[in-house]
Structure formats: structure tokens, C-alpha cells
From TrEMBL:
Gene3D superfamilies named in the record: P-loop containing nucleotide triphosphate hydrolases (3.40.50.300)
Every DUF4143 domain range: 235-333
InterPro entries: AAA_14, DUF4143, P-loop_NTPase
PANTHER family (UniProt xref): AAA+ ATPASE DOMAIN-CONTAINING PROTEIN, ATPASE
This protein's name: AAA family ATPase
Top-level taxon of origin: Bacteria
Signal peptide, first to last residue: none
Organism: Agaribacillus aureus
Domain AAA: 33-154
Pfam families: AAA_14, DUF4143
Length: 397
């Protein structure tokens, strides 16, 4: 147990707090039970350690632990918390909860028994709080940490500091916003770098090794994280890898489920379930038509990779500029609201706006008669009328 505290102190002492994700200010840290979920590699552990460092420092009242530590292979979490409390502990930051089979039940018991203990936990985005064998939904407030936006990438890289822009302001005032920002800033100079390696904070460890590390992250998702989904058969990991390569080579993918299930060698219902699993693991986006309720047995209208970095890592010889544009748009907009596929246009956002994505010469033909419809154009710095630069959508969070 002493080693866990020493490890916590070492990590807190070493953590860099010069850049902190905006989610840190949105979390109500005074709430007694918070959960942070998100894809591997997006910075959940860093967020915990930064808050520990800036709020508690190195002391006895707060500690960081990870439930994939070998200590918890033969020791119960609840026993550790009892001992921690007896030593004056109050604030517990728990990483990788999904690696510990009884995590939900034991955290629920601690929450109900000890009113003086505050817990913040992190876990893979595959975690479904509502489907645990105990009810945490009334106790825990859950936050999701997406990957870096283009805005955060610019800030973290030391290129430019820009405030996040609400989508309503962006749509209404994009001409003035883009004109002001580009007085001394060339966004397209950095845009391709972001598409290639800017979504995951670990690009700071070196861009040359970035693709290799990202492939390792995806392998861990398929080989490890998906095993925590009820009903998932780990023997099909190779087939999930095959599915993911097909998707990466053909995005945006409009799935023919029968042909795809024959090609991979799994039942069509199993294939649809695996698509939903990969979405829960934040590897892909499933986009459905307007007015269609989402079901785990429903075939999606289109399948996109979660972000453009995955395209360059998984199928670099298959990247397509049109697909990259749409994937970028989804990755930047989906964290702030719901996107669907309308009758006309590429995407609708919260039934408020319709967007058609394309290059600088993209025409209005498909959305000409529609209200609140806008062209989103790559390869332009500044907008005009209802033509909005694509890069601006990277400033939403």
C-alpha cells in the first residue's frame, strides 16, 4: 500500500500543468462522485494528476491510484479506501476503473457509507454506467473527454491562443471572426499537421513515433478494452481488426451489412454490434438519418473514423481529401451536439443548421432551397456570405 502512495507522489511531482484541458473547469470537483470517460490517449490520467497537483499538492488527504496496478489483483479496492480514510484521506482519484471487476459495486458502497470521501474515477469510453450491476446513475456525474480540438492543438503547440467559439456565434459571425483571426495567423499552415497527428496529446512525445503509438492504442482497444463489453467474444479480435481496416480504407463508409459480414465471416447482427462497440470505444462515428432512433441492432447510414489521425495511421495509402474533410468536421462538432444526415446536405446539427462540406469551389446546388443551410469549405481562410471556412469548426471547444 505504501508503494501506491509513493507512486502517487512521484506522478504528482512530475506532472506538467502548463496546459490544462477546458473540461477541468467544467467538472464540479466538489461533487462526491465524478466519472471521466473517453478514448485511450486523450489525456484522462493527465487531467486527474493536474487537478491533484494544483488543488491538493503532495499530501496525505488526496491520492491517485490506478486499478490496473498489480496491487489490486490481490487486494480489494474497498479495503484500500477504508485504510486510506483511517489515515485522514478524503480525496481519491481512481484511474482505469474498468480493469477492476467489482469497481462499480465497491465505489457505490463507499459513496453510500462514507460521506467524507470524494471520488473521481476515469475509465474507457466503453463503460456504460447505466448497465452496471449496481445503480451509479443517481450518484455519479459523468463527463466525457474528447481528443484535442484544432484550437487546443494550436494552443498546446504554442502557435496561437484562441477562445472557444459557440457554434451559433461562429455561424452568424464567421466572416468577422475569420477576418480578425487571420490578420496575423495562417491557419491552413497548421491544418494538415493537425489532421495527421494533432488529435491525441501524446503527439508532444514526438511526431515521428506518433503513428506507431496510435496503432498500439488501437490494438489495446481491440485486444483489451472491448473485452469489458458484455457479449463481446475476444476470439474475434482479428476480425474486428479486419473490419476496422476495411472501414479506414473506405470512409465515409455506407455499409452493405450482408456483403461485409460475408467478407469478414461473422453474422450480420454480430457485425452491427461490433460497429456499435467500436463507436463506444471512440474509434468510429456512426451517423444516422434525421428522425431515426438509435439501436444497437440498427444499421447506421454512414460510418466515419473518430478522427483524421486514425486515417493516416490505419490506411495511409487510402486517405481521401473529401473523407478527411467530413471526418474533421464530425470530430470537432460531435462533442458539442448531435449530427445527423438530412434529406439534403451532408449533416444537420441539432435540427438547427444544415452543412454541406467541400472544397473552396463547392456549390450550393444541394442546399439551395434550404433555410439555415451553409457551405463549409476547405482551403479558404476567410468566409463570405454563407460559405464558412472548415478550419473554423476546430474552434468550438
Amino acid at each position: 500500500m505504501r508503494e501506491l502512495f509513493e507512486n502517487s507522489r512521484d506522478l504528482i511531482a512530475e506532472i506538467n500543468t502548463s496546459f490544462i484541458r477546458p473540461l477541468a473547469t467544467q467538472i464540479d470537483w466538489s461533487w462526491r462522485l465524478n466519472g471521466i470517460i473517453g478514448a485511450r490517449g486523450t489525456g484522462k490520467t493527465t487531467l486527474l494528476l493536474q487537478h491533484l497537483s494544483t488543488t491538493h499538492g503532495i499530501g496525505e488527504e488526496a491520492v491517485y491510484i490506478s486499478l490496473d496496478d498489480i496491487y489490486f489483483s490481490s487486494n480489494r479496492l474497498i479495503d484500500f479506501i477504508k485504510a486510506f480514510r483511517l489515515k485522514g484521506g478524503k480525496y481519491l482519484y481512481i484511474d482505469e476503473v474498468h480493469k477492476y471487476p467489482e469497481w462499480a459495486r465497491e465505489i457505490k458502497n463507499v459513496h453510500d457509507l462514507y460521506k467524507d470521501i470524494q471520488i473521481t474515477f476515469t475509465g474507457s469510453s466503453i463503460i456504460d454506467i447505466l448497465k452496471q450491476d449496481v445503480d451509479l446513475s443517481r450518484r455519479a456525474v459523468i463527463y466525457e473527454l474528447p481528443g484535442l480540438s484544432f484550437r487546443e492543438f494550436l494552443l498546446l503547440s504554442g502557435i496561437k491562443e484562441i477562445e472557444a467559439i459557440p457554434i451559433s456565434d461562429l455561424v452568424k459571425n464567421h466572416q468577422e471572426i475569420s477576418m480578425e483571426l487571420t490578420k496575423d495567423f495562417r491557419p491552413l499552415k497548421y491544418f494538415e499537421d493537425y489532421l495527421t497527428y494533432g488529435y491525441y496529446p501524446f503527439f508532444l512525445e514526438g511526431t515521428k513515433s506518433f503513428k506507431r503509438k496510435l496503432k498500439q492504442v488501437i490494438n489495446l482497444v481491440i485486444q483489451t478494452d472491448l473485452n469489458f463489453i458484455e457479449g463481446y467474444d475476444p476470439k474475434n479480435a482479428r476480425k474486428v481488426n479486419q473490419l476496422l481496416y476495411i472501414l479506414a480504407s473506405n470512409v465515409p463508409f455506407k455499409p452493405n451489412i450482408s456483403k461485409l459480414s460475408d467478407k469478414i465471416g461473422i453474422h450480420r447482427n454480430t457485425l452491427i454490434q461490433y460497429l456499435h462497440y467500436l463507436e463506444k470505444a471512440s474509434v468510429i462515428h456512426l451517423v444516422n438519418p434525421e428522425g431515426i432512433s438509435i439501436s444497437t441492432l440498427q444499421k447506421p447510414e454512414k460510418v466515419y473514423l473518430r478522427n483524421t489521425n486514425l486515417a493516416y495511421a490505419l490506411a495511409p495509402d487510402k486517405t481521401n481529401i473529401g473523407s478527411l474533410r467530413e471526418t474533421f468536421f464530425i470530430s470537432q462538432v460531435q462533442p458539442i451536439g448531435t449530427l445527423n444526415i438530412p434529406m439534403n446536405g451532408d449533416f444537420s446539427f441539432e435540427d438547427r443548421y444544415i452543412f454541406e462540406i467541400g472544397g473552396q469551389n463547392k456549390g450550393r446546388k444541394q442546399i439551395n432551397e434550404l433555410k439555415n443551410a451553409h457551405i463549409v469549405s476547405d482551403e479558404i481562410e476567410r468566409g463570405i456570405d454563407n460559405r464558412i471556412p472548415l478550419w473554423l469548426f476546430g474552434l468550438l471547444y
